[in-house]
Amino acid sequence: MPDTPTGLIPILATPFTADGELDLPSLRSLVEFQLSCGVEGLAVFGMASEGSR
């Protein structure tokens, strides 16, 4: 049986540029910040609509 996460798994915000493109430098910064805080994992496309973008 796989390990079950027991810590924090925040929904990661998806940053966009003013042009509506994915802001990769900001996304990297957000991921690195979350990981430095010791999260167990990251959830993407939580309950928001950015998945279609």
From TrEMBL:
Coiled-coil residue windows: none
Keyword check for Cell cycle: no
Pfam families: DHDPS
Name assigned to this protein: Dihydrodipicolinate synthetase
Organism from which the protein derives: Amycolatopsis methanolica 239
GO molecular function: lyase activity
Keywords: Lyase
Source organism phylogeny: Bacteria, Bacillati, Actinomycetota, Actinomycetes, Pseudonocardiales
